[in-house]
Amino acid sequence: MNEELIKELYTKGGIDSGKIKQLKIASYTYQKTIGELYWLGIISKNKSKLSVTLLDNPISGALKKLLFNGFNLSLLSKKNLVFLSNLLTPKTTLELSEATTLSVAQTSHLINKFSQFLTKQNNTYVLSKSNTDLFNLLSLIHMKNMQNYTCEKGEEKLQKVPLDFQAEGTLTAFSRFTEFGLPINPSHKYLYLPKKELTLEEIIAHAVKFSNNANDLALCILFYLQNRTKAKVNEIEKNCEKLGEINTWFDMVSYIDGQPVKNQLLFLPKHEFQQKAQLYKLETIPRYNQEKIQELFKELEKEIKETIQVYFIGGNALI
Question: Is the pTM of this model over 0.70?
Answer without folding.
Answer: no
